[in-house]
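Appendix C: a fully annotated inverse folding record. The material below is reproduced so that readers can follow the format used throughout the book. The structure is listed first as tokens, followed by the designed sequence.
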């Protein structure tokens, strides 16, 4: 049936891109004008120095940008909803960026840990363009500035490598507290491989007073063999809390992996989370849960996630007086 031909062509082109076979993609792309529609439909783009990742629904294949025909690249951008930029924007990508800006449909943006010092990506100028559509933002702590806070109302904010700096200075710029930016955020995530959560616990409590719509706060911390210390700090905060947000503490791998799961590794995790309930249903993480009642009787759920193949070490105890538990 002739009416099915465009759909069949699109399906073939999408499958070729997802499989990452550039030679076949080039043959397909030059097979006819309608074949280029598959490039125009791409919704997810990752930009590296000399590589590009393209795809749909945050699933992409990477290609050497110098080997991709320019006419293919020029088609990309008009339908992009999610964009990642590692650091610099190579001139090869300028047309894609122009297409993204002209359509203003970006919903999710993330950038590499060194992007704050980029010479070609100026986030304080770029991100406000998408103030009416952007919902998810993941950037280095040093990139968060007054222009971004003044212009955006997002739902999910992820900040990378911030615990070597003052949290209050990162989150609150120019004395602005409870702005529309702060009030709109529902999930706040800290991804840190440079510092320790327990060292900044005095600055964490104010987060729940500043982000009024906050439903979940996540701490993704590099494993340093001192998880009990961080959990002790979190529980002390919860004990005096006046909020109902859920807290998730995820252990980021240190790079030391086991070839398979071991009972001894699980035993160490259980020792770290002695007062928590173990949930074995997660295929990738050892999951531990504990529900607390804060001082204003609000319920708070604290979840701790350990990668199942992360090599764990026994830890010293960090004693704390916990809040009232709900049984």
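Designed amino acids, in order:
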């Amino acid at each position: 049936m002739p009416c099915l031909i465009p759909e069949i062509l699109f399906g073939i082109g999408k499958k070729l891109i997802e499989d990452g076979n550039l030679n076949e993609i080039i043959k397909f792309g030059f097979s006819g004008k309608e074949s280029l529609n598959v490039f125009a439909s791409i919704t997810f783009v990752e930009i590296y120095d000399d590589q590009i990742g393209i795809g749909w629904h945050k699933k992409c294949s990477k290609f050497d940008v110098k080997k991709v025909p320019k006419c293919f690249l020029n088609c990309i951008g008009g339908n992009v909803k999610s964009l990642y930029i590692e650091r610099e924007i190579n001139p090869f990508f300028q047309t894609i960026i122009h297409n993204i800006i002209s359509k203003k449909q970006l919903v999710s943006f993330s950038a590499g840990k060194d992007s704050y010092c980029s010479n070609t990506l100026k986030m304080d100028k770029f991100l406000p363009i998408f103030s009416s559509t952007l919902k998810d933002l993941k950037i280095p702590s040093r990139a968060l500035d007054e222009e971004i806070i003044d212009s955006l109302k997002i739902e999910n904010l992820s900040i990378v490598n911030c615990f070597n700096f003052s949290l209050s200075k990162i989150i609150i710029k120019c004395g602005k507290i409870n702005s529309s930016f702060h009030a709109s955020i529902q999930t706040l995530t800290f991804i840190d491989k440079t510092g320790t959560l327990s060292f900044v616990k005095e600055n964490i409590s104010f987060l729940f007073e500043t982000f009024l719509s906050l439903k979940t706060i996540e701490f993704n911390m590099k494993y340093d063999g001192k998880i009990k210390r961080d959990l002790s700090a979190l529980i002390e905060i919860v004990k005096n809390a006046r909020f109902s947000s859920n807290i998730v503490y995820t252990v980021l791998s240190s790079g030391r992996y086991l070839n398979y799961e071991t009972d001894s590794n699980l035993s160490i995790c259980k020792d770290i989370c002695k007062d928590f309930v173990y949930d074995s249903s997660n295929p990738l993480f050892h999951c531990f849960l504990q529900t607390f009642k804060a001082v204003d009787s609000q319920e708070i759920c604290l979840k701790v996630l350990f990668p199942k193949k992360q090599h764990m070490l026994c830890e010293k105890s960090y004693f704390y007086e916990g809040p009232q538990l709900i049984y």
